[in-house]
């Protein structure tokens, strides 16, 4: 037993060491990106240039007014010079999260952002960084970004408020029997799990099953008593749990949201009836008979 215990300790220490190393490398990658944006904010072109690999590439993608996808190659030297010629505090890029993936000496980072010129919001989108860990440490070898001017996040808590309003509107759509709004808020592969053990539907299956309910004035009316929303670091996924006032009494539910090209969609939702602990035996007897 002592031998096995020693092996377990060694394995645990080794595992913690590896995890710690991965955390350190992630912090190093994010540190380089933070240095880039600090250099832009401070109008320090040398600080910005130090984050770039000599073979760095800069690209932007967008949809033009005709709805056609476009890609533009940026000029690195012109970008660095523009940083150095700006006034400090002019070029502000706010990052709303980091999704970091690392394999050997390659890192890929996804960062949703909003870009400000001074205190004026210019545009928003997503940056994708490709980074290389070489003799000079982590350096950026490519940045590609998307750009749009509508629906931009301006404050750290704005996304949470947006998602909270979306979930509330989703429940209100059911209360108002608005099938298009209710099912339109779900992803095509969205899953809805009801309170009965047989109730697991894909979105379109649920729409067919509940057709009669949505032909009434109210399909069903759920009102949130409380709700907690958690946003993933990549800003592309979020989940929530809530307590609901329903015709079944107090229920609890959980849901998962994902960011799609059409905006945020509900990808998974599960509803459950609450049973007080002291009544669980009566509940079991009721459902088993």
Description of the molecule:
This protein is α+β, with helices and mostly antiparallel strands and 289 residues long. It folds into 2 domains: 2-146, Roll (Nuclear Transport Factor 2, Chain: A); 158-288, Nuclear Transport Factor 2, Chain: A (Roll), CATH 3.10.450.50. The protein contains 7 helices and 13 strands. The protein has helices spanning 2-42, 45-49, 76-85, 158-175, 179-184, 203-209, 280-288; strands at 52-63, 69-73, 91-95, 99-103, 106-117, 120-134, 137-146, 186-193, 200-202, 223-231, 237-246, 249-260, 263-273. The strands form 2 sheets. Strands 1, 2, 3, 4, 5, 6 and 7 form a 7-stranded mixed beta sheet that branches. A 6-stranded mixed beta sheet has the order 9-8-13-12-11-10. A hairpin with a 2-residue loop joins strand 12 and strand 13. The two termini are 48 Å apart. Residues 14-19 have low confidence and may be disordered.
């Amino acid at each position: 037993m002592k031998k096995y215990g020693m092996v377990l300790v060694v394995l645990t220490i080794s595992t913690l060491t590896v995890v710690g190393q991965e955390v350190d490398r992630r912090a190093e990658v994010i540190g380089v990106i933070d240095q880039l944006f600090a250099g832009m904010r401070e109008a320090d072109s040398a600080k910005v240039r130090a984050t770039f690999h000599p073979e760095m590439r800069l690209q932007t993608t967008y949809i033009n007014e005709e709805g056609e996808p476009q890609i533009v190659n940026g000029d690195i030297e012109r970008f660095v010079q523009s940083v150095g010629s700006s006034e400090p505090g002019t070029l502000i890029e706010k990052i709303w999260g980091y999704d970091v993936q690392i394999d050997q000496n390659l890192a890929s980072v996804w960062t949703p952002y909003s870009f400000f010129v001074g205190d004026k919001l210019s545009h928003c989108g997503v940056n994708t960084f490709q980074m290389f860990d070489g003799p000079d440490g982590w350096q950026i070898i490519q940045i590609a970004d998307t750009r749009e001017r509508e629906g931009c996040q301006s404050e750290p808590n704005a996304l949470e408020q947006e998602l909270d309003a979306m979930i509330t509107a989703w429940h209100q759509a059911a209360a108002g029997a608005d099938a298009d709004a209710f099912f339109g808020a779900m992803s095509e592969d969205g899953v809805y799990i009801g309170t009965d053990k047989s109730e697991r539907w894909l979105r379109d299956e649920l729409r067919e099953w509940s057709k009669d309910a949505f032909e009434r004035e109210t399909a069903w009316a759920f009102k949130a008593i409380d709700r907690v929303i958690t946003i993933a670091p990549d800003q592309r996924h979020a989940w929530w749990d809530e307590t609901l006032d329903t015709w079944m009494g107090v229920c609890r539910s959980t849901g998962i949201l994902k960011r799609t090209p059409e905006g945020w969609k509900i990808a998974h939702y599960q509803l459950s009836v609450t049973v007080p602990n002291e009544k669980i035996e009566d509940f079991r007897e009721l459902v088993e008979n």
